[in-house]
Amino acid sequence: MIEIPVRSGVSLRSLRQRDAAAMHQLIIDSRTHLDRWLRWSAALQSVDDVSEFVMMFEKREAEGAGFHLGMWTEDGLAGGVVCWHIDQLNRNAEVGYWLGATFTGSGLASAAARTVVGYLFESVELNRVEMQCGVPNLRSRRVAERCGLKQEGIRRESHWITDRFVDHVMYAALCKEWMDELDAAT
Ligand SMILES: CC(C)(COP(=O)(O)OP(=O)(O)OC[C@H]1O[C@@H](n2cnc3c(N)ncnc32)[C@H](O)[C@@H]1OP(=O)(O)O)[C@@H](O)C(=O)NCCC(=O)NCCS
Prior knowledge:
Blueprint: E1 3-7, E2 10-14, H1 20-29, H2 31-35, H3 47-63, E3 67-73, E4 76-87, E5 92-99, H4 108-122, E6 128-134, H5 138-146, E7 150-161, E8 164-174, H6 175-185
Parallel strand pairs: 5-6
Antiparallel strand pairs: 1-2, 2-3, 3-4, 4-5, 6-8, 7-8
Helix pairs in contact: 1-3, 4-5
This protein binds coenzyme A (COA).
Coenzyme A binds at residues 33-34, 37-38, 96-99, 104-110, 133, 137, 139-140, 142-143.
């Protein structure tokens, strides 16, 4: 189980089977907002679908191959930070994030994603962390940029999102850049 504090009243904790109903409700309440940009939400229609999705990440977490952390606030589950895969050989990982529509606009996703990037560099000792954002998904791109990742290029039609292929921007940070930034900030 991964548990990481983010800021006052907000923490990240691995999603588990018992969270499936809360996650399902959050997805239903934000269906249009999420399905527009996420590669996975449209496939999750029932609590059982969500349960299976959560289980897949439980397995990845147990193998050190990825994880899905819920963003927990005083108002319950607000969203999540997904680590799709951890490539142990090349010491890199890909991170994504999502929020229920009513939780946007308060810096929650940027703070949580930044916390996870720091965790992957400092605790998992990775060399590179990637984020891929739909080219027109400007809110998501701002999160990646606020986390200090650099734009590397465009992957044309790299992901099928709900009902169409979407070009994605590849953002990445390297551990040495991250540590240099931390040094500069202290
Ligand atoms: C992508 C997504 C998580 C971004 O949500 P968000 O609310 O814009 O991101 P944050 O929680 O970091 O909030 C940032 C906003 O809060 C504002 N804000 C308010 N208080 C803040 C604070 N203390 N710190 C930082 N930002 C703050 C910022 O100004 C910013 O708004 P702006 O972009 O209009 O300037 C959200 O739009 C979403 O869930 N979209 C659907 C799923 C998705 O696209 N996921 C990414 C797939 S690649």
